[in-house]
Structures are given as C-alpha cells and as structure tokens.
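A brief tutorial aside. Many learners find it easier to grasp structure tokens once they have seen a single protein encoded end to end. The record that follows does exactly this for FkbM family methyltransferase. Read the sequence first, then the structure, and try to relate runs of similar tokens to stretches of the chain.
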Amino acid sequence: MNDSRPFGDFAPSGITRWVIDRTRGLPEGWAGRRVALMLRHLAMKMLNGLPLDLETFGVRMRLYPYKNVCERRILFTPQYFDADELKILTDRIRPGFTFIDVGSNVGWYALFLAQEAGTAVATRILAVEPQPEIFDRLIYNIRQNPSSTIKAVDCAVADKTGELTLFLDPRNRGEASLKIVNSSQTDAIRVPAVTLIELLNREGLAHVDAIKLDVEGAEDLVLDPFFRDAPAALYPALFIVANVPERWQIDVIGLLTSKGYRQALETKMNLVFERP
C-alpha cells in the first residue's frame, strides 16, 4: 500500500538512521558490501512496514524496501547501485539530452540524471513503468523533485501494441516481465503495451541519446521489432540492457553489434552498448 502523506513524514530516526548513514558511507569492495549486507539485515528486522523518506545524491524519494530490491539498494547502498552505468550517462548530458528509462521502477535512473542535469540544461526524460503500484511510487517521487524534466508513462514496452499480461514476482515487485518470472509464486496483471518505436513516435522524438532497457528478460521482444521498423536516425547513441542473455530467445548482443553498436561495459547487472 502506498502512502501519499507529505515528504518527510517518514524520515528515518534512531538506529535506522544510524544504519543507513553507516551503509551509505561504506567503500567499494567485498568487505564494504559484506558489512552493508549485515547492517541492512539488522535494520530490516526493526522496520515496521512503513516507507522511509530520504534524500539521496540530491534526489528526494519515498522508499518501500520490503518487497523491492531496487528500493532496498537505493535506501542502504546507493553508492553501489549501477555507479558505472550512471557515470557513462552523466558524461553524456548536454543541452537537448534525451533519455528513455524503460522499466523505470521507482525512478532512480531518471531522477538521478535529472538532478545531475539541473535546471540550466534542457533535457527530456521519459520514465516508463507498467506496474500500477510501482508507477504510483514513481509519480510521487517525481513530484518531490519539481525541478526535474521527467515525464512518467504507465505502460509496458513490448513486441506489439495492445493489452498484454505482465507477470509479477510478489517477493520482488521490481521483477516484472512479459515473460514468466523466475519464481514459484507468480502473480499476473493485464497492462497496456506499446512497441518502442511507437512510444518514440507518440512522444514526437526525432532523436534519442540513451535508452535503458530493463524488462526482466524481455529485452529481445523489445529490440527485435525496434531494429526491424525504426529508421537509423532513431537509434540511440547508447543502449543499457539488462544482462540476462539466458532469458533471450534471440542473440541480442549480436543484433546490437549488427546495427553498429560496440560493447562498452559489462557489469553483473547490465550491458552497455555505444554507437558512433
């Protein structure tokens, strides 16, 4: 259940505040991550199901860390959360920068980049999220950062337009996919969906600088029709895709390479491709 009370009503205090401060200050490396995990377990046992309001790298967010891995990572260890990927994106910010966050979850990528760009640089950011409950959290977080240039879009991005089934993992609300999720307990809802090219056309985009595509194994369903139908002028200069090749039914890496992309980075979570 989401709560729309004013930001700050759920500010952490006491031992919870202490743990968050400690975990956020830990360095990179195995030892730091291990200590962060132990402290996080301690704090999670003490929380009572309520959200927490925090500012993270200048971004104000209300976080529900209980059944969403993404929100737990932002809450306790944002310094570890896709730091290399965000650095690559931040380095590309310039006037007119356009970023599409497909599978935005509660908006971390979109909000971080909007904060980095500030008000002096005109940017356009789309945050696309199909889950109604998570979308409501995304909207709330955007509203707490009124200087941002983010537009939230409540739909899935898929291989066809229409109403499709979205599979959910009740243990991790961030893991939603148009393919069956890796869980013995799976929920399903019907959501509106569009293709990536249709999304860009609806938004009137003539160019895109970067797209982050994290749709829990359905990246192949999105990219195959996009590269079949989209003009080269709409190919983004940068693609970040979830690193889950075992779930793809086509060779996504080969597809991107055939379209002129080169792999610039591989992390545990993501693959980053650049196109000159």
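Self-check: The longest strand covers residues 187-195. If you spotted this yourself, you are ready for the next section.
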